[in-house]
Amino acid sequence: xxxxxxxxxxxxxxxxxxxxxxxxxxxxxxxxxxxxxxxxxxxxxxxxxxxxxxxxxxxxxxxxxxxxxxxxxxxxxxxxxxxxxxxxxxxxxxxxxxxxxxxxxxxxxxxxxxxxxxxxxxxxxxxxxxxxxxxxxxxxxxxxxxxxxxxxxxxxxxxxxxxxxxxxxxxxxxxxxxxxxxxxxxxxxxxxxxxxxxxxxxxxxxxxxxxxxxxxxxxxxxxxxxxxxxxxxxxxxxxxxxxxxxxxxxxxxxxxxxxxxxxxxxxxxxxxxxxxxxxxxxxxxxxxxxxxxxxxxxxxxxxxxxxxxxxxxxxxxxxxxxxxxxxxxxxxxxxxxxxxxxxxxxxxxxxxxxxxxxxxxxxxxxxxxxxxxxxxxxxxxxxxxxxxxxxxxxxxxxxxxxxxxxxxxxxxxxxxxxxxx
Length: 421
Fold this sequence. Notes:
There is one protein chain. The chain is an alpha/beta fold. It is 35% helix and 17% strand. The protein is built from 15 helices and 15 strands. The termini are far apart.
């Protein structure tokens, strides 16, 4: 199949006989960015702040060089691939940006890679992103780097380190129950080779894993019974927000309350915890970004705290973690396109992404292989991760308090780990 990028290269080569193209920015041409995220459906909480970030980007002085075309994946992988194709074929974007869970990032990145269009993604652990796009995810010897797809976020090794460090602050029997759904995140988190099981076993933990369940399950009795039988005192997993609400409510009804519940994805957002009423107190989660992170935007110089404050002032809502990472997507896009002569040259843009070394509102982003195995070194840039607990406020609502910074001491803590009552 001849990709759009290959076709454009052939046309450009023919045109180059008579003239050398001027850099796109110098010509005054607007660079086209395509942005995909789950703005509706069960993953919509990840995109709650999109309109705020896009509006603020449009007001930045650098925005005059860009046209941003936004698409909703509807929390559906097939739809994500479809809108990526539309952005590439119909809108002829120069660079794709995509955020929020492997169900969105992976189909967009795979489509872009096939078409030879550069793409930067975030808000998905790097293993589900990288391994999930391989032809044979079960055979590491077959894994290949990508030419056009790049991703910045943390990995399973980081979230495991954070979770176990939080648990170590408590007195438990080290018996852990797993909530791993049958999706990109769940299958990778529960993988016996690259996921939680081998690391927990090495750390002396006993894992009760009842197996994969389908997203939007309405009955978690089997999992709760298995956890009771396993004398589980710690629960971990990566459910989607509505599923954890169902599980936690049923666990309380059936008399199961662990000492710790460290949950990825589902309780990242204040509204998800508030939906649990008072029972969300001391639930714990990974923290990828917060107002106390000591970083600032490369676009407008605002600190993480100032960006969070601006969001609350404009929307009246509490800050959420994706704000920083979606903001950083556009920071990286601006930086990359400022270092290329021809924004239409996918190879040049991909090389510029690979050479990135940018301080952003989520921390430094550099595709330098630091902290990564060789097979992922070209395509992944790791970002810092700490751990936090949701604390019920006197006047209602919750605050996310950072309680572990073992791996990144420059990010300050606001308290220590407490048991769930």
